[in-house]
């Protein structure tokens, strides 16, 4: 069974052809990072326009790389939500048109189920039940997955997502967008014990997260920083680009390493507690922030201590892509959990606030 996956929920226009829910024949991603970099974050209107321009060429490239024609595709899969409504609409509209024109079934996919499913592309026999940490630019959620397709929410962020926090700190420091990979790289040259930033809700029973406090703490610290002459690096709210100096770079890298440590420590501690309080036999970490090198190291240590394996997708499957959407759709279609055929899917709409629930029926 050949599935064409389409993903346009945020700032990546992506299409992929996946065979039998496991074999990635193509995985094309047109990133909009260059467009949004000037603003230090995603501008929804620009994202939407760029999807309109890029989606068809991206789909054509995915078909070409997979050496298949549209008529050989068995099922169309598309991200229905959550995400930016305008961006989602581009993918959903084109997917509906394709499915209608070709007379193929259409499977709507929850973006986070896509992220969780990405693990099955490389590790098809992940042991269930498992705890899944979904950490991206828009989400920081902890799920207990009894079996594939069954999700119990243990906790989620009450304010900023972890990736959003990386992006905002990078923006304050004029590092570029997306901030996560840049912070990750520079933090490796810093001392993660140099500064102590808050670990919000660490000692609370809840599995929820909160990352806005650490972001504010970093900002407050930056406003107070001075060079050896006592001159402030930043003044008031003006975070302009600084003259590069070794002294500043050392301070900056220490801030980044300490910030990253604070975020990672909370993510890892809550995941560990979730493993201890459930029957979990594995830990799965997905989403863009799952690329983070410190998170990977610390989570592997937790896995060793708890005696459970830890699974991360390869970086290309951590960040937004359409192979994960096709993979999730294959499972849904095979289990007859949710798909649309004939005219019925014309009612399907983008859902920017879609929640992840266990069973959908059509
Ligand atoms: O999953 P994703 O591609 O998009 C969303 O669904 O949001 O995740 C993007 C997020 C961005 O916030 C980006 O800064 C973050 O993942 N990210 C990282 C790293 N690589 C990407 N965060 C920390 N460390 C990284 N190495
Ligand atoms: Zn995502």
Offer a few descriptive terms.
362 residues; alpha/beta; Nucleotidyltransferase, domain 5; 2 domains; 5-stranded mixed beta sheet; 10 strands; globular; disordered C terminus; binds zinc ion
Task: Tell me what the structure shows.
The protein has helices at residues 33-37, 44-66, 85-102, 111-122, 162-172, 179-187, 212-224, 246-276, 293-306, 315-318, 323-334; strands at 2-7, 12-19, 23-31, 75-81, 106-110, 130-135, 140-147, 150-156, 283-286, 310-311. The chain is globular and about 70 Å long. Helices cover 42% and strands 17% of the residues. It folds into two domains: 2-117 and 318-358, Nucleotidyltransferase, domain 5, CATH 3.30.420; 127-221 and 251-312, 2-Layer Sandwich (Nucleotidyltransferase, domain 5). A hairpin with a 4-residue loop joins strand 6 (130-135) and strand 7. With 362 residues, the chain is an alpha/beta fold. The strands form two sheets. The chain has a five-stranded mixed sheet, with helices on both faces. It contains eleven helices and ten strands. Bound molecules: 5'-O-[(R)-(carboxyoxy)(hydroxy)phosphoryl]adenosine and zinc ion. Zinc ion binds next to helix 4.
